[in-house]
Design a protein that fits this description.
The complex is a heterodimer of chains A (411) and B (356). With 411 residues, chain A is of the alpha/beta class. Chain A is built from 14 helices and twelve strands. In chain A, a hairpin with a 4-residue loop joins strand 11 and strand 12. With 356 residues, chain B is an all-alpha fold. In chain B, the strands form two sheets. In chain B, strands 1-4 form a two-stranded antiparallel ribbon. In chain B, strands 2-3 form a two-stranded antiparallel ribbon. Chain B is globular. The chains are: A alpha/beta (411), B mainly alpha (356). Chains A and B meet through helix 1, helix 2, strand 2, helix 3 and helix 4 of A and helix 2, helix 3, helix 12, helix 14 and helix 15 of B.
Chain lengths: 411, 356
């Protein structure tokens, strides 16, 4: 009887659902607005929404409106599975994923249902291999690519790696450990000493590791991969241990405005740098366009727009999805009834699309679904983030070779 | 009201100990069987079957925890860890030895039961909050151990892709096929749980829950039965983990964090401790309520709030508020859980229209 009630309760929702109408393209987007990563999920989700709204206000894709469904998965698997099926039942032709465990839980279904999905900055590194994972797009940068970029950046900063000592300070969970194989391989190739410093959850106490890095191991460079509160704790712990922040580079989830603010502001964290897969800062035309859209509607822009690191990533996700849809609609003779496979091919057709410098020069054709593993390092200055490099790929041949090895093992 | 309870004479031991002695109960059970085995898979759309699948998996886990917490009175905050033990056991067996699900499913349960016995050892000496903390430790130890043992976790990402189960050569990979697979498991789990509760073992559990010293004086081997409760409960958790693994096609320890243990504890408490029906109610309630609220807010929200951008944030937070509020409401109305609420309604209608 319990389940009867369940069915009745759910039937109410059913009535509210409508099928995709003509001239409308349905896409799904997951976020985390109330779960453990809500600090990322809110600005990121807002960014995606604003971009889609902007495109719709400009007439949509080939004259068709995009209807974006959003599900807050709270970084949990069961709500994400339910949300994905909801997207599917409403006819979504692409899904923006959110969260590594969620990406893994949905990989098999996405492939079976032939619906393409993006997992920017998280998910499985091996899914960059478009032959083994035809419907997953880890654009713009997986943890493996980030590891390659971090070593490349360290090399640039120190003018060579031979005989140097690099510390990898990481959150001791599967996501944190994922950078390890690439770093170990590169330490063999380049001849630097790699020492691993795991930080147990929740990562709010790091003085031991910091002292170890600064005094005992005497690292020449620190590559860190932390989440949540941990990046800001790390900045302070390394400073206390007397380690210069100029010699620290963080992975993509450890260098946002919120992290810097929690560490005591831009002046306190000066020199700290972080890898990014979307441009950071306010200086992009697309942000002006969104402000203009809000102004035309007589509304204030959202507060989350000030969190440029995550908001701009949301813009990147939205833009990538729209770009893929444009290609798919064009390939479908301008009609809105595109299939998932057409959208997948649309993703593969994306190239030389930079959104005024906000996006890296992704090229997702040719079997590389990550678009090349592009990253850019931004450094903390007294007034905000400033680019320290141009868009670059670190050790792409090595990383992609490892990706190929990994997928060959699975099959 | 609808049926008579008098006039049915139990003339044999078998009829005396039947699970459903009254014909109305048998008809009801048969009705539900037809509903869930025939009507639901034929008529319900794939999306709603997804929800039923998630509810079904949660029911198995809640039934297990109910045996430990509700029947035996031992608290455990490590239920999710046993799920990951089951998940990785099944995943390794399925990928390394190509074993079918009818071996991996019980094997995952048995491995979880073995670990459960070890984790249950402190229960021999300690009770209540102290036991809660020691099972909490188990949650973290098991998690750490799995993540740091590549031989179990399958590498740095701690995730193993598992092929979907197959029956007679048919690969169960649609929601409808998986629904039947999960449904059969749930039915078996319910039947076993019902029988445990009314057997010698179950009565020993209840005796320990109510007063362990008195139980020992009665001749119940408290140590043995406490460990048995841990083993059975962990077995259920292990099977739940295997179901999650087959359902999503991947074993991943991030599916089973501490908060999942808390969720299951909530299911047992909200449903009503110590009853099988309560565990089913609780699992359904906790799984379904956020989805129902979300669907409701999605359909009604746009009429209440014009700003569609702000709506998605408000919707998410409203879901948390309503979810918490409704749990409090139901527990205030009936502290003994949804099951007691149902029993009250049933006993009211049993004699209706007479009040006694």
């Amino acid at each position: 009887m319990k389940r009867i009630l369940a069915t009745i309760a759910v039937a109410g929702g059913l009535a509210a659902m409508t099928a995709a109408q003509a001239g409308e393209i349905v896409i799904g987007q997951m976020t985390d607005r109330t779960g453990p990563t809500a600090n990322v999920g809110n600005p990121l989700g807002d960014g995606v929404q604003d971009y889609i709204d902007l495109i719709n206000s400009q007439g949509g894709v080939g004259g068709h409106t995009i209807r974006m469904l959003e599900v807050d998965n709270q970084y949990k698997v069961p709500p994400a599975v339910e949300g994905y099926q909801r997207f599917k039942s409403e006819g979504a032709v692409l899904v923006g994923l959110y969260g590594t465990p969620i990406t893994q839980a949905l990989t098999a279904d996405l492939q079976k249902d032939m619906i393409p999905a993006t997992s920017p900055g998280f998910g499985t590194a091996a899914s960059a291999d478009g032959e083994a994972y035809p419907y997953l797009f880890p654009a713009a940068s997986s943890y493996w690519s980030q590891a390659g970029s971090a070593v490349e950046y360290a090399k640039q900063q120190m003018g060579g790696l031979k005989g140097k000592k690099i510390a990898y300070l990481f959150y001791d969970n599967p996501a944190g450990r994922e950078g390890l194989p690439v770093l170990r391989k590169l330490s063999e190739l380049e001849g630097f000493t790699l020492n691993e410093f795991p930080v147990p959850a929740p990562g709010i106490e790091m003085d031991n590791q910091a002292r170890d890095i600064a005094r005992r191991f005497r690292a020449d460079f620190v590559i860190s991969h932390l989440f949540g509160r941990a990046p800001s704790v790390q900045i302070n712990a390394l400073k206390r241990a007397g380690f210069s922040l100029d010699k620290v580079v963080s992975f993509v989830w450890g260098a946002s405005e919120a992290d810097v603010a929690a560490a005591g502001g831009f002046e306190a964290a000066e020199g700290y740098s972080g890898i990014q897969f979307a441009g950071v800062g306010d200086d992009f035309q697309i942000r002006r366009d969104i402000e203009a859209m809000y102004k035309a509607q007589g509304k204030e822009v959202r507060e989350s727009m000030a969190s440029t690191v995550f908001y701009n990533r949301g813009l990147l996700i939205g833009a990538l999805h729209v770009e893929a849809l444009k290609h798919a609609v064009a390939a479908n003779g301008g009609n809105a009834n595109v299939t998932g496979t057409q959208v997948r091919d649309g993703f593969r057709a994306v190239s030389d699309f930079s959104l005024g410098g906000l996006m890296p020069p992704l090229n997702m054709g040719g079997g590389d679904h990550e678009g090349g593993g592009w990253t850019r390092v931004f450094k903390v200055t007294k007034t905000g983030f400033a680019p320290a490099t141009d868009w670059f790929k670190g050790y792409r041949d090595v990383v992609f070779g490892m990706i190929k090895e990994e997928t060959a093992k699975k099959n | 009201m609808f049926h008579r309870e008098s006039g049915y004479y139990k003339t044999s031991y078998a009829s005396d100990s039947a699970l459903y002695p009254l014909p109305i109960a048998r008809f009801a059970v048969a009705g539900f069987a037809i509903l869930f085995f025939v009507v639901a898979p034929l008529l319900v759309s794939s999306y709603y079957l997804t929800i039923l699948n998630l509810v079904g998996i949660a029911i198995v886990g809640a039934l297990g925890l109910n045996i430990l917490v509700g029947l035996t009175g031992q608290i455990s905050i490590g239920h999710a860890a046993f799920m990951s033990v089951g998940a990785y056991t099944a995943a390794n067996l399925a990928t390394r030895f190509d074993l079918p699900f009818w071996i991996t499913l019980p094997a995952g349960g048995l491995m979880a039961a073995a670990i459960g016995i070890i984790v249950g050892f402190p229960s021999v000496r300690i009770k209540g909050l102290y036991l809660a903390i020691s099972t909490l430790a188990a949650q973290f130890i098991i998690d750490w151990f799995i993540v740091h043992t590549p031989a179990i976790s399958g590498g740095f990402q701690a995730s193993i892709q598992v092929p979907r189960p197959s029956v007679f050569g048919i690969i169960l990979d649609t929601q409808r096929e998986l629904y039947l697979f999960i449904l059969v498991t749930v039915v078996i789990a319910i039947i076993i749980a019902l029988n445990i509760a009314r057997s010698r073992v179950g009565r020993a559990f209840i005796a320990i829950r109510d007063q362990d010293i008195a139980a020992e004086i009665l001749g119940i081997d408290v140590r043995r039965y406490k460990l048995m409760a841990f083993a059975i409960s962990s077995f259920y958790a292990g099977v739940t983990g295997v179901l999650y693994t087959y359902y999503s096609g991947v074993a991943n320890n991030e599916f089973f964090p501490l908060v999942v243990s808390i969720d299951y504890l909530a299911m047992v408490i909200i449903g009503g401790m110590g009853s099988v029906l309560g565990a089913i109610f609780g699992a359904t309630f906790v799984t379904l309520l956020p989805i129902a609220i979300d669907l409701f807010m999605t359909s009604v929200g746009p009429y209440l709030i014009e700003d569609t951008g702000a709506l998605s944030g408000i919707k998410s937070h409203m879901r948390l508020i309503l979810f918490g509020g409704l749990i409090m409401f139901f527990l205030v109305v009936e502290p003994e859980g949804l099951n007691r609420l149902w029993l009250n309604i049933r006993s009211y209608f049993r004699v209706w229209p007479f009040s006694y």
